[in-house]
Design brief:
Helices cover about 45% and strands about 15% of the residues. It is an alpha/beta fold and about 200 residues long. The protein has a four-stranded mixed beta sheet, with helices on both faces. Helix 3 links the parallel strand 1 (about 25-30) and strand 2.
């Protein structure tokens, strides 16, 4: 049902126009094949959240059998791939999987997908080219605790130490550390990251 209702991009020109025409909202394109069961599942979730994210995101689907133009350019070899664009710019998203270009698995949980879209949108509005997604989302999706989560906790603990010395501006600029984290940790004694 979802694939039928979501707007289809039927040529490469339509894909380019969808990416270039949106100035204030995040453009989400699901690349895949409409007949694929994984695409059908993902399209159903996208259809169900489309109304909830319409103020900050627009969702399109693109069948790779009809529009093969982007297969090689975006390395679209997976059954289902979500890509994010903002103001004619491809948004890089670090999910901790090693591939920062796209989300290439089926995400069945509507709220998790909304959280990811909102996080990418907020990062895009701040001018960030790479948005780091919370590791717990990826851990829940894959059902495992990986090295990425451990490394993130190490970095956060190190950044709090730098924040106490007043040298955290460049970390916030990279999107790794937020002002709220710094101020809350500094007022609470700054023990963040030492118990892990």
């Amino acid at each position: 049902m979802g694939s039928v209702v979501l707007p289809h991009l039927v040529t490469g020109w339509h894909v380019d126009q969808a990416i270039m025409s949106e100035e204030e909202r995040l453009v989400i394109i699901r690349f895949g094949r409409d007949w694929d069961p994984d695409c059908m599942r993902q399209d159903e979730v996208l259809y169900r959240i489309a109304d909830r994210v319409k103020n900050f995101a627009v969702i399109y689907v693109c069948d790779l059998d009809q529009v093969p133009d982007f297969k090689q350019m975006y390395e679209l070899y997976d059954p289902v791939t979500l890509m994010f664009f903002f103001r004619n710019k491809h948004m890089m998203c670090d999910f901790g999987t090693g591939n920062n270009n796209k989300l290439n698995w089926v995400l069945d949980d509507k709220q998790e997908l909304i959280d990811i879209i909102e996080t990418i949108y907020r990062g895009a509005k701040k001018g960030r080219g790479l948005v780091i997604i919370q590791p717990d989302i990826v851990t829940r999706v894959y059902g495992r605790h990986d090295r990425y989560t451990d490394y993130t906790h190490y970095l956060e603990g190190r950044e709090i130490g730098l924040a106490k010395n007043g040298r955290y501006g460049w970390l916030r600029g990279l999107g790794i550390l937020s002002e709220r984290t710094v101020t809350s940790e500094m007022t609470m004694g700054g023990t963040f990251g030492t118990d892990r």
